[in-house]
Design a protein that fits this description.
The chain is α/β, with parallel strands linked by helices. It contains 13 helices and 21 strands. Helix 6 runs parallel beside helix 7, helix 8 packs antiparallel against helix 9 and helix 11 packs parallel to helix 12.
Length: 478
């Protein structure tokens, strides 16, 4: 399970995590999060069930997000420099977590040393071929004389990713990060890079360390172009959109199930995809849904699905933006807010649901390695079936506001997890496959443990729980 940290907004080291009064989500703001702060937060990640920590770029850069590097191989001194990264990697390793660093391969900042040389010397620079230049001297503004990153970001020149020297430099950069202790690399905007480059990056990582992992940010639906040929895994943006559309009522369960079947047919093994409800480039799920219970349901669905779960910092405690205005991709600044470290500000129900789901995943091979089938029970009810050999786990998700009961064939059932008021009761109703069946009843507001129900609460009836049946313990969730 991968946990993404936007380093500047996650935690400041050397204290209780409290932020200065002026800390803000604003684009221009530097909040002061650092690598020692991430290290101090490792116990929270371990308790949550995280197994891999993904750091957004730690390189020197003018922006708060640092995706505009001035040096692709250095650790920003304001984050603590090399020593802080070494401390973090050592502590993470001792806690059983792998550390994945983020590498931008498509563009750099104008103060990147090779580009400074090009600015000074023009075509006479040995680095002229590293960039896509068409006029020199350069100008400041929308038509600077070279190709630059999208959305008018002219201070960010594009690298020529077909240039052999650039490919070699980026491959050596990946190897350098692996040699200094990183367990893997996330390739930013991997879909914008030639597959020959992503293959070279992975080869360099493997040469530096045999078990190094390279995954890519791939926005297009057809991730099979990159995985497994040139990347170990890719982000599943189509899956995220499908879950959001179902949770918010934009699509019905049949549409969700059909999309999942298409992706499963094309992609194969689930571990080659990273599933998520949001990233640092998108609005958080609690912001999009405007409903903590629906957000909780989406987080549990991702945690128990076949793809590797990727959790954006703060989603586990119900973090949401005050401003829910729809925004373009990469313009999610209100949801890049500082992580609150006062537990009184956390949504405890969401934290318990996410931690429960991730711990369950950690205990069950079927949830980590099993096959997956998404089935529509009706518009408001989805069943995600996980199977590995004789073991089966059924995850039943209910988005509606009306209490529902779901009959599960297969004999007596045992709950593994319940969220939002799910409960299991015996049912005398026969089924075509077994003389008896278990029923999940999604009731309004009943908190319960695996042994007893407790008095009603006003929690909406969003339901997610897990049960095994006998004799061959298939399991189910409602």
């Amino acid at each position: 399970m991968v946990y993404t940290v936007l380093v500047d907004r996650f935690r400041r080291g050397g204290g209780d995590g409290a932020w200065p009064a002026a800390a803000s989500w604003q684009r221009e703001a530097r909040c002061g999060g650092d690598l020692d702060g991430v290290r101090e937060a490792l116990p929270h990640l371990v308790d949550l069930g995280v197994t891999a920590l993904h750091l957004t770029p730690v390189t020197p850069a003018p922006s708060a997000h640092r995706y505009d590097a001035t040096d692709l191989r250095a650790v920003d001194p304001t984050l603590g420099g090399d020593a802080a990264l070494e401390r973090l990697i050592a502590a993470a390793r001792a806690a059983g977590l792998r550390v994945i660093v983020d590498l931008v391969v498509t563009h750099v900042d104008r103060d990147f040393a090779p580009f400074r040389d090009v600015r000074d010397r023009g075509p006479a620079s040995r680095y002229w071929g590293w960039f896509r230049c068409h006029r020199w001297p350069f100008f400041d503004g929308p038509d600077p004389g070279y190709q630059h990153y999208q959305k008018g970001r002219w201070p960010e020149p594009l690298l020529d990713l077909d240039e052999p020297e650039v490919v070699a430099y980026l491959a050596d950069t990946v190897a350098a990060w692996i040699r200094r202790g990183a367990d893997g690399v996330r390739v930013d905007a991997a879909a914008d890079a030639p597959t020959a480059l992503t293959a070279a990056l992975r080869a360099a990582a493997r040469q530096a360390r045999a078990d190094a992992v390279v995954f890519g940010e791939v926005v297009p639906t057809r991730t099979e172009r990159w995985v497994p040929a040139t990347l170990d895994a890719a982000t599943d943006f189509a899956g995220r959109a499908a879950w959001i559309d179902w949770l918010t009522g934009a699509d019905d369960a049949a549409t969700l199930a059909a999309g999942a079947a298409r992706r499963r047919f094309r992609r194969g093994a689930g571990h080659q995809a990273l599933a998520f409800t949001g990233t640092h480039d998108q609005l958080r799920i609690a912001t999009v849904t405007g409903d903590a219970a629906l957000a909780r349901l989406g987080l549990v669905a991702v945690a128990l699905g076949a793809a590797v779960p990727l959790l954006y910092y703060g989603d586990e405690v119900g973090l949401a933006a005050d401003d829910a205005t729809p925004r373009d991709f990469e313009d999610s600044w209100p949801d890049r807010q500082p992580m609150p470290w006062d537990p009184a500000r956390w949504d405890r129900a969401t934290l318990d649901a996410v931690a429960g789901a991730l711990r369950l995943r950690g205990r069950r091979d079927v949830l980590r390695r099993g096959d997956e089938e998404v089935l529509a029970l009706d518009d408001d009810l989805v069943l995600v079936r996980r199977v590995l050999g004789a073991e089966r786990v059924d995850v039943v998700l209910h988005r509606g506001a009306t209490p529902r009961a779901v009959t599960l064939p297969g004999g007596p059932a045992r709950a593994l997890l319940a969220v939002g008021g799910a409960a299991i009761v015996a049912s005398p109703t026969p089924t075509t496959t077994r003389p008896t069946a278990s029923r999940w009843r999604c009731r309004r507001a009943r908190r319960w443990s695996s042994t007893a129900a407790r008095p009603p609460t006003p929690t909406p009836p969003r339901c997610a729980a897990t049960t095994p049946t006998s004799p061959a313990p298939p399991t189910a969730t409602a």
